[in-house]
Amino acid sequence: MTPLHTHAVVGSGVPAGLLKIVGTNRDLPSPGGRAARWIDGDLAPEGDWDAFFCPHPLDASRSHRTIHSPRRSDVVAPGDVIRVRAGSSLVSVLYRRGANANALFVTERCNSYCLMCSQPPRDEDDSWRLAELLELVDLIDPDLTQLGITGGEPTLLGQGLVTLLAACRSSLPRTRLHVLTNARRFCEPGLAGAAAAIAERAVTWAVPLYADVASRHDYIVQAHGAFAETLHGIYNLAERGQAIEIRFVLHKESVPRLEPFAEFLWRNLPFVDHVAFMGLEPMGFAKLNRERLWIDPVDYALALERAVLHLSDRGMSASLYNLPLCVLPRSLWPFARKSISDWKNTFVAACEGCSERDSCAGFFSSAGVEWVSRGVRAIRETS
Ligand code: SF4
């Protein structure tokens, strides 16, 4: 697991803000974008660059415009985009070339308060993020295949989200966007229409829905009326030809509705492009609410099998995220994805020698032993 942050020695001449790390000409940002020359090896910090990045210690007399001696030398690499803040030694990677899940984090604010939220919302004005993201989009490699947009709740930006989508479509025309949203604000036709007009078919709207009945969904997201707003938002997006993914997080409060939920989807939302059933990420509120939420996947595996096959048999596309293969019935293995971002993915001692490790999602690195299913055991198969 490679973290997204590290501390380093930041020279006093390094400008605060975003920097594209340039190893070769391929990495050069478009005109106006700021760049830090990678000076691993024999290169000296010379030339007309905004800054330099050296993964090793550097002579103090040569380090005025250089970031060097990172505490972890594997955090930053050529092609990445980093953020440096004035007077701080913290270097943050906002875009990592080659990572399996890059995302734009648009706000910490949210209009829901989900029991299992891995990124608990904070009600602070962070509207400064939009300007930074607009700059970031210009520094991302244009051949990136997929980019997430997440929060918090991205639609709280209102027109700001539309502006961000437009910037992505313009700077990254070949990149598919995946926006994680509760869609509640898309019950406003004006916002749904403006977003859809920019998104066209380049965006997938990933919308969490946790039950087939309002009372259960509203309880899980801790927001009265959320179920109705989300459904209304989904229909507004669908009416405008948008690609929609439904996300159902599996825990003790949602699993009892799993099978009726599958039938509900088939009856009411058969047009969605994809349904993702997701294991819990043990972070944030999920950790705080463990007693309320934890259920061993072994104990809902059969209900999950029935729900997934119910959808699949009817032609709906379904996937399983964040669940180890060894706790799933074999019939579900074709649906399981290696879904955990590489920087927070790990395996446990019991995985030693498992023949399925390369195709298994494994675990979140935040998962202690209390989050590991009793069904985990290495699979040993000879082909
Ligand atoms: S033993 Fe580990 S690698 Fe193998 S299927 Fe289970 S969780 Fe995955």
Q: Strand arrangement, largest sheet?
A: 1-8-7-3-4-5-6-2
Give a count of the beta strands, DSSP E runs of length 2 or more.
Answer: 17
The molecules bound to the chains, other than polymers, are: iron/sulfur cluster
Query: Spans of 5+ residues with little confidence (pLDDT < 50)?
Result: none
Question: Count of DSSP helices?
Answer: 9
Distance between the termini: 30 Å
General form: globular
Mean pLDDT across residues: 95
Calculate Rg over CA atoms.
22 Å
Strand content: 15-25%
SSE string, helix = H, strand = E?
EEEEEEEEEHEHEHEHHEHEHHHEEE
Helix content: 10-25%
- Secondary structure class reads alpha/beta
Largest sheet: 8 strands, mixed
Structure description:
This protein has nine helices and 17 strands. An eight-stranded mixed beta sheet has the order 1-8-7-3-4-5-6-2, with helices on one face. Helices cover 25% and strands 19% of the residues. It is an alpha/beta fold and 383 residues long. Strand 13, helix 6 and strand 14 form a beta-alpha-beta unit. The relative contact order is 0.09. The chain binds iron/sulfur cluster. Residues 324-326, 347, 350-351, 354, 356-357, 360, 362, 376-379 line the site of iron/sulfur cluster (SF4).
Explain the layout of strands and helices.
Elements: E1 5-7, E2 9-10, E3 17-22, E4 35-38, E5 51-54, E6 66-68, E7 81-84, E8 90-95, E9 103-105, H1 128-139, E10 146-150, H2 159-171, E11 176-180, H3 189-199, E12 203-208, H4 214-221, H5 226-239, E13 243-249, H6 258-268, E14 274-278, H7 284-288, H8 290-293, H9 297-313, E15 318-321, E16 345-346, E17 363-364
